[in-house]
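Hi R.,

As promised on Friday, here is the backbone we talked about, encoded as structure tokens. Could you run it through your design pipeline when you get a chance and send me back a sequence?
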């Protein structure tokens, strides 16, 4: 998968050596410990990451094309993860909220796109989130801005990389992945992305259907609500069709439909077999409604109506009210089971993050350059792809 990115034999050897270091046993996967376990000078690894000329984006494209064929993904899953840091010089490290920490802490935040099915996945593309504190163009104090410029220079951060919302980074990566020749697949995410109307509109503009988790306080109209046009008084602009009443929350719509409309769905089989559940079936109760999400940024149809989509809610039998909500633009003919499976596919992200962090050391990079971070992350994903290849084909040849 280094083909096209690494052109010299010595670079190829160093790249394979680095991936082998990531795959070897050992608690720490930074350069010095890996070099000691491999019995080589750590400067060989450091030179390949920090000052070599290979293109990590070509490697990512190679991994993505392999994954598209080997995994046959059902969805692109969007998420982000925190990389805790003690210092302040690593690129884009700042005090910010991290789901990994469960609180605000000193960390980096990386956004990823996974190609996923229930049996395999690959985190093929990444962006490191740039906080506003690392963007001198957002700082009005000249002295503080100068300090930030110096930090950016030390981390070799180019001028085109600025503070940008995480959901916009996700759309950027989806554009890149499609440009690599991968198919347009449904997109799944948590509410951190699903609550952003711009993100959902961006997916629709790209022809990408979605099933994204949303907050129950988001608002929508039932499809039975229709806009009305007020009588024209003969002066000024003619009134446009508008909904006579304000929208209601998603929670209100689901509660009005009632628990009796929920149906049991098994979306996959896990690994926790019990006498009561010998097949480890993962099941719950779900209901779905056709609704029209309401937001001033959503373009309306010619007749004044808002676009329809699915509202999916999980309402376990022992819960007083629904516990999760999703909006989805999957076709109207999509079955409830298929819709639930897509919405629930985000669990593969947690599997990937756990393997990439605890097994392969994606968050162990100690360098100070943004390019170095991207190269380390890319080779970590390559190591995971190799492990996935072995799981998919246990008879595959082991590395020399």
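Update: got your reply. Pasting your designed sequence below so it's all in one thread:
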């Amino acid at each position: 998968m280094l083909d096209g990115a690494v052109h010299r034999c010595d670079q190829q050897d160093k790249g394979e050596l680095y991936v082998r270091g990531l795959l070897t046993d050992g608690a720490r996967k930074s350069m010095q410990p890996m070099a000691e376990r491999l019995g080589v000078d750590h400067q060989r690894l450091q030179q390949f990451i920090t000052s070599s000329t290979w293109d990590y984006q070509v490697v990512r494209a190679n991994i993505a094309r392999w994954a598209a064929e080997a995994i046959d993904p059902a969805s692109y899953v969007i998420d982000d993860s925190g990389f805790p840091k003690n210092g302040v010089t690593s690129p884009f490290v700042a005090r910010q909220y991290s789901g990994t920490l469960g609180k605000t802490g000193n960390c980096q935040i990386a956004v990823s796109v996974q190609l996923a099915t229930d049996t395999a996945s690959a985190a093929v593309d990444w962006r490191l989130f740039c906080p506003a504190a690392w963007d001198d163009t957002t700082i009005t104090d000249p002295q503080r801005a100068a300090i930030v410029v110096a930090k950016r220079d030390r981390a070799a951060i180019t001028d085109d990389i600025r503070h940008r919302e995480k959901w916009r980074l996700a759309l950027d990566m989806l554009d890149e992945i499609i440009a690599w020749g991968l198919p347009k697949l449904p997109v799944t995410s948590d509410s951190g992305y699903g609550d952003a109307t711009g993100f959902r509109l961006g997916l629709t503009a790209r022809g990408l259907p979605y099933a994204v988790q949303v907050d129950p306080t988001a608002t929508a109209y039932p499809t039975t609500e229709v806009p009305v046009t007020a009588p024209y008084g003969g002066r000024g602009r003619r009134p446009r069709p508008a909904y006579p009443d304000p929208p209601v929350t998603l929670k209100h719509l689901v509660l009005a439909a009632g628990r009796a409309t929920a149906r049991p769905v098994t979306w996959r089989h896990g690994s926790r077999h019990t006498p009561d559940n010998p097949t480890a079936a993962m099941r719950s109760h779900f209901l779905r409604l056709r609704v029209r999400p309401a937001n001033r940024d959503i373009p309306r149809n010619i007749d004044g109506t808002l676009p329809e989509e699915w509202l999916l809610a999980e309402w376990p039998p022992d819960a007083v009210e629904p516990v999760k909500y999703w909006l989805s633009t999957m076709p109207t003919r999509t079955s409830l089971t298929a819709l639930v499976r897509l919405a629930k596919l985000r669990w593969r992200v947690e599997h990937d993050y756990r393997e990439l962090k605890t097994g392969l050391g994606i968050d162990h990079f100690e360098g100070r350059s943004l390019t170095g971070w991207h190269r380390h992350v890319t080779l970590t994903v390559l190591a995971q792809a190799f492990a996935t290849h072995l799981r998919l084909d246990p008879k595959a040849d082991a590395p020399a």
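One thing I noticed while checking it: The first helix runs from residue 9 to 23.

Thanks again,
M.
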